[in-house]
Design brief:
Elements (H helix, E strand, L loop, with lengths): L7 E3 L2 E3 L3 E3 L15 H12 L4 E8 L11 E2 L6 H13 L3 E7 L13 E2 L13 E2 L2 H21 L3 E6 L4 H6 L14 H4 L1 H13 L5 E7 L10 H13 L4 E5 L16 H11 L3 E4 L5 H9 L5 E4 L1 H5 L3 H9 L19
Parallel strand pairs: 3-4, 3-13, 4-5, 4-6, 6-9, 7-8, 9-10, 10-11, 11-12, 12-13
Antiparallel strand pairs: 1-2
Bound molecules: flavin mononucleotide.
Length: 344
């Protein structure tokens, strides 16, 4: 019995296997943020390839929050229909679909200098100084996240994920490294948590019970002046108490220097969140090998395994894993002749 090919059920969510496609920007929308034939084909290929849960790339809740001028967007009602078509396509192939709602804040590259952040400090020399958000602006951005979530519900997504990691706006408020405010949104952890918690609470108000809420977090920051792992545990506990269903555990991104990495480097963090908070978690990071994924799930380190670059290289990673692990009944009929008879 394979671990990653066992089904996963939590609340209203049923996944046919434990393999998740990590959110990955494709940088190929037009200026207005609509999906293109690339998106339908790219995500469609992974759905045909039997990925259990596809997390759509960071999708901007405000035009000025895009990480590049070619990001997907959900800042307008006109995005609902084309995104909805894509969701239905993927669901018809058997995948569940999440959308990652994002705002780049001081790390946005929308193609203009209109960028905002908790404090007026640039991310690096390559970025302009952001405009420090006033309270009205904070409320407006919270509203944009809520509207993005509403539109995502209308488009039919199974899960809404907030991008709270990698140094983008939500993370910028959480981190004492980027948040130097002296009002109720800065200073203590309780204050730095206010912005993400207000977003979560606003979204929970409109979220139907059958759509789950997930947050991607950076478990650690790898920078001097950042938060500690134990701060992040407290933050994640507050997220869960506010109604977050699943934690998608990543790390880093708050500062310009990336950490040293190796296969599974983020798994111990995911495991700790799972053990301490009792919620399902997703672990990710340089996973290539199905045997390693079996170990992560089988030994209870994580509930779900996410693959990023391995799924870019090979849309049929799941089918090839079924072959390697000897799991029958996974290969789509149209591809059967490409695989050994015992596993068809
Ligand atoms: C091309 C590319 C785009 C990415 N875009 C996003 C994104 O939109 N949101 C996000 O949370 N992470 C993003 N990431 C990070 C991945 O989701 C993942 O965490 C990272 O690649 C590590 O996993 P891997 O070693 O399996 O690739 C991106 C990574 C890549 C390679």
């Amino acid at each position: 019995m394979s671990e990653i090919f066992s089904s996963f059920s939590f609340k209203s969510l049923d996944l046919s296997n434990r393999v998740v496609m990590a959110p990955m920007c494709m940088y190929c929308s037009g200026e207005e943020g609509f999906p293109t034939p690339w998106h339908y084909s790219h995500y469609g290929a992974r759905a045909i390839g039997k990925v259990g849960l596809i997390i759509q790339e960071a999708t901007a809740v405000e035009k000025r929050g895009r990480l590049s001028p070619k990001d997907l967007g959900i800042w307008d009602d006109t995005h609902i229909e084309p995104l909805g078509k894509m969701v239905t396509l993927l669901q018809n192939f058997g995948s569940k679909v999440a959308i990652q709602l994002g705002h780049g804040g001081r790390k946005a590259r929308p193609g203009t200098r209109d960028i905002i952040g908790p404090s007026g400090i640039a991310f690096s020399d390559e970025f302009p100084n952001p405009i420090e958000m006033g309270e009205k602006e904070i409320k407006d951005v919270i509203h944009s996240f809520k509207k993005g979530a509403e539109r995502a519900c209308a488009a039919g997504y199974d899960i809404i994920e907030l991008h709270g990691a990698h140094g983008y706006l939500i993370h910028q408020f959480l981190s004492p490294y980027s948040n130097k405010r002296r009002d109720k949104y800065g200073g203590s952890l309780e204050n730095r948590l206010r912005f993400p918690l207000e977003i979560i609470r606003e979204i929970k108000e409109i979220l139907p019970s059958e759509i789950l809420l997930m947050v991607r977090i950076s478990a650690v920051e790898y920078i001097k002046g950042g938060y500690s792992f134990s701060d992040m545990l407290d933050a994640a506990k507050a997220f869960v108490e506010a109604g977050v269903d699943i934690l998608d555990v990543s790390s880093g991104g708050a500062g310009p220097s990336p950490p040293r990495v190796w296969p599974g480097y983020q798994v111990p963090y995911a495991q700790k969140f799972k053990e301490e908070l009792g919620v399902p978690v997703i672990a990710c990071g340089l996973l290539k090998d199905p045997g390693m994924a079996e170990e992560w799930v089988g030994n209870g380190r994580t509930d779900l395994v996410a693959l990023g670059r391995a799924l870019l290289r090979d849309p049929n990673w799941v089918l090839n894993a079924a072959c390697e692990l000897g799991v029958p009944g996974i290969i789509p009929g149209s591809y059967a002749r490409a695989y050994p008879e015992e596993i068809r």
